[in-house]
Design goal:
heterotrimer; A mainly alpha; B mainly alpha; C mainly alpha; A: mainly alpha; three-stranded antiparallel β-sheet; two-stranded antiparallel sheet; about 10% strand; C: mainly alpha; about 45% helix; PSF1_C (chain B); DNA replication (chain B); chromosome (chain B); GINS_bundle-like_dom_sf (chain B)
Chain lengths: ~180, ~200, ~210
């Protein structure tokens, strides 16, 4: 999967906006949106929020978790935990990336938010790599990792599947008594 | 050693996995087929001899037979991998191949390319009820309906969907429907301009 | 990567598998093989006589040496013998597997088919060697962005190289996304390469 496809999925996440225009409710396959009235918050998919914001048709209300204090706590928790902690959004990186790109002015302390998100991502990727190493070196046949997000899995997927395939082939050499007796 | 020529074909194809397709090696194929014919005839002679009572020929027959199978595998793998490459070319270059690349295909490969082209076109036309879907478009989720582009090369006149005629001249810039110009971008005629926010 | 499973039928058209099965091993002829003496270039005899020693590619040796047929007997190649296995065990990361046969794991796996007395040890050694080298392959493939990777991969065997490339791909795609390059529609990779080559040819001839 290409990261842009992961982003496409993330764009379906709902987000709160404050429009500055008037429009009746609109009916889309994915659900009804609006009505839109100036100053009244409403919920729309992220892709629409970004598009409206780019045309200066709304102000974006950042999600609760996109906050320096909350993210610092999250970072600390991730740092102290041996396991992956649950993220406030399954698309935390994509949502931040998109909002920080189009709505910096709506996010308090945007720069600090950006750094914190990046720190959390780096922490989790390092953790992921260590778990992969432990897994490959053990003789385990399966592993369970909770709370990984799609973008995180997607980034290691090509590598992980190739490495595990190789490992599996080498291991099955040792147990394939059936094959050895075939001829 | 036996099957050396066939191995050369495989090596040749292996080398150009990421690059351009090499010219079809007709001479190489011919040499492999010659070796195979010789092996086959010798084996036929030895089997006839065995039937009429001669003993001890089994090891030679087995060895030649293995070499025959090996030759066959190498040639088939050579042809198969070329076809896979040609299939990829359809998706990257579009339905018309540049002349210098076309020149590297043998006649049967050109035929194969044409029928693949036809099948793909028929299939894409048959999707849905409204005239089909172009599967080679929007390979990544599109971000906008229109895109800004710059011409990298002179391409001549271009008629847009609403009937406007524009001239794609080198370094000229245009604002076009993404669906209309994505092919030209992929073929390197136009360059997509992205504005940083 | 079924190239290590030992069934040619799994990947009949695989060029890598064909090259893997082309790797040679020392063989000894056990029965006369008439009219094929020319395969041994050191002798003028028209027959390959019992006792003749020669190197054969795996694909041939496999067909002449099995539980049912003993037309030749085989020896394990140097890189899979005890002395080498000790080296791999001591420090798998310093070994140049590319030099020891670019298809080290695949060929090694195929060799197990001969049911040699050391087969189990060889099989184990292959697993341990890869486990030992894994972290380094992962780290180098995940950290090296936009730099010359030939130095990092020169000691890897072909299957390790594929894993390395897969790691680079994931990282590269992510990095392109992170810097918002994925928004830009690009010229197809094949078209780009084709242009480059054409330009190079033009420059040569002018």
């Amino acid at each position: 999967m290409d990261p842009s496809e992961v982003e496409f999925l993330a764009e379906k996440e709902s987000i709160s906006i404050v429009p500055n225009f008037t429009l009746d409710q609109i009916y889309l396959i994915s659900g009804d949106l609006g009505p839109f009235s100036p100053g009244l918050p409403t919920t729309v998919p992220l892709w629409m929020a970004c598009s409206l914001k780019q045309r200066q048709k709304c102000r974006i209300v950042p999600p609760d978790w996109m906050d320096v204090e909350k993210l610092s706590e999250k970072k600390q928790e991730e740092l102290e935990s041996k396991f992956f902690t649950q993220m406030p959004s399954n698309h935390y990186l994509e949502v931040s990336q998109l909002l920080l790109q189009c709505a910096t002015d709506d996010i308090p302390k945007a720069d600090e938010v950006k750094t914190l998100i990046k720190d959390i991502w780096d922490l989790r990727m390092a953790k992921l790599r260590s778990s992969v190493e432990v897994f490959v070196k053990s003789d385990a046949t399966h592993a369970k990792l909770n709370h990984l997000t799609l973008m995180e899995i997607n980034t290691v997927r090509p590598f992980l599947t190739a490495a595990l395939d190789h490992m599996h082939a080498l291991r099955s050499n040792l147990t394939s008594g059936s094959r050895l007796s075939q001829d | 050693m036996l099957a050396e020529k066939a191995l050369e074909l495989v090596r040749e194809q292996h080398r150009c996995t990421d690059g351009a397709l090499a010219p079809f090696n007709e001479d190489g194929i011919r040499q492999v087929l010659e070796e195979m014919r010789a092996l086959f005839e010798q084996n036929q002679r030895d089997t006839t001899a065995t039937v009429s009572g001669e003993v001890g020929l089994f090891s030679s027959i087995q060895l030649r037979h293995t070499a025959l199978e090996r030759n066959k595998r190498c040639v088939l793998a050579y042809l198969n991998n070329r076809l896979e490459h040609i299939k990829r070319m359809r998706w990257e270059f579009g339905s018309v191949l540049p002349a210098d690349l076309r020149y590297n295909l043998c006649e049967q490969e050109v035929q194969w390319f044409n029928s693949y082209n036809r099948m793909l076109a028929n299939y894409m036309r048959a999707i849905g009820d409204t005239g089909g879907v172009d599967l080679t478009q929007d390979m990544k989720p599109p971000k906008s309906l229109y895109v800004e582009v710059r011409c990298v090369a002179d391409h001549g006149e271009f008629e847009t969907q609403d009937g406007d005629l524009i001239v794609l001249k080198k370094n000229s810039q245009h604002f076009l429907l993404r669906s209309e110009c994505e092919h030209l971008i992929r073929q390197g005629v136009l360059e997509h301009i992205v504005h940083r926010m | 990567m079924s190239q290590t499973t030992g069934h040619a039928s799994d990947n009949y058209f695989s060029l890598d598998d064909i090259l893997t099965t082309q790797e040679k091993l020392p063989c000894k002829v056990e029965m006369p093989i008439y009219r094929l003496g020319y395969l041994d270039q050191s002798s003028d005899d028209s027959t390959l006589q019992p006792g003749t020693k020669l190197e054969m590619p795996f694909w041939l040796a496999r067909s002449l040496c099995s539980r049912r047929r003993h037309i030749v007997s085989v020896e394990m190649p140097r890189a899979y013998r005890e002395s080498y296995r000790q080296i791999f065990k001591a420090d798998p990361n310093v070994v140049d597997l590319h030099k020891l046969g670019p298809y080290f794991y695949g060929f090694g796996s195929y060799l197990l088919n001969f049911q040699h007395s050391e087969a189990a040890d060889i099989g184990n050694s292959l697993v341990k060697t890869f486990q030992g080298r894994f972290r380094k392959i992962m780290d180098s493939s995940q950290n090296a962005l936009n730099q010359d990777t030939s130095k990092l991969t020169e000691k890897l065997d072909e299957s390790e190289k594929k894993i390395f490339v897969a790691g680079q791909l994931g990282l590269h795609d992510f990095q392109r996304w992170e810097t918002r390059q994925t928004e830009k529609l690009m010229t197809s990779a094949m078209v780009q390469k084709h242009r480059k080559r054409k330009r190079a040819v033009l420059e040569e001839t002018s």
